[in-house]
Amino acid sequence: TSFGFKEVPEEEKSKLVGNVFSSVASNYDLMNDLMSGGLHRLWKDRFVSELTPFPGMKHLDVAGGTGDVAFRILEKVNSISRRALRHDPAEVLNDETQIYVCDINPNMLNVGKKRAVERGLGESQSLKWVEGDAEALSFEDNSMDGYTIAFGIRNVTHIEKALAEAHRVLKRGGRFLCLEFSRVDIPILKELYDLYSFSVIPAVGELVAGDRESYQYLVESIRRFPPQDKFAAMIADAGFQKVQYENLVGGAVAIHSGLKI
Ligand code: SAM
């Protein structure tokens, strides 16, 4: 179904995504809360609870500009460290844990850095902000214990390349986790969701952020993204084992996971 939207040629996609997120960056938090009714916070909590962070881990959060996922991971690691070692928190923050936040858009990274300060994590040596493309990561092979990507992979031009890169940088035993909008297939809920995404989201985008087009693009990109089973098959094709997914809100959002063995 085209849903009345134009096909976006592949070569234009990267540029378009860049523009969208530059324009969206400053309103990002407010818009996320508005559009999801605050639910994105719970989805991210659930997402990070799927990961088993540990002190000293090396983790990569791709498309993580706002820091939302990285902060949750670091806070979990810090609370484990504090509990286990009964250390002074300042000392614990200096442990070997490294959480890389990689994003293609420097504006989004700046939003994240600002928010790290607001969250009291500004001084943390564990957070590293890296500008980079999910399709061509600057990290070494077999170097990460975990890889996360939240609401990012559908914006990547070649999903297969991003998955191959995720697999490459993970160590054996490393976990891949992806949080992304997906397909609602439950009647009535599906109709409501369609109405919401095609009418309400662009209207709110225009009203609050003064940018209908960007939000229309976001809705369209959700529809283009492969449904749960197809995406799971792509993750397996990239070499991951034990590929699974869990639907949230009837499939409006899904958490996919895989293991590099
Ligand atoms: N993970 C954050 C969250 O859940 O709040 C941010 C999600 S935001 C909807 C999508 C992010 O993907 C943007 O920050 C954008 O700059 C980034 N992005 C888009 N294409 C990318 C790519 N090829 N490589 C890395 N990041 C990319």
UniProtKB/TrEMBL annotation:
Entry's localization field: Mitochondrion inner membrane
InterPro entries hit by this protein: SAM-dependent_MTases_sf, UbiE/COQ5_MeTrFase, UbiE/COQ5_MeTrFase_CS
Protein keywords: Membrane, Methyltransferase, Mitochondrion, Mitochondrion inner membrane, S-adenosyl-L-methionine, Transferase, Ubiquinone biosynthesis
A biological process from GO: methylation
Keyword Membrane: yes
Gene3D superfamilies: Vaccinia Virus protein VP39
Bilayer topology: Peripheral membrane protein
Protein name as catalogued: 2-methoxy-6-polyprenyl-1,4-benzoquinol methylase, mitochondrial
Organism, as annotated: Aquilegia coerulea
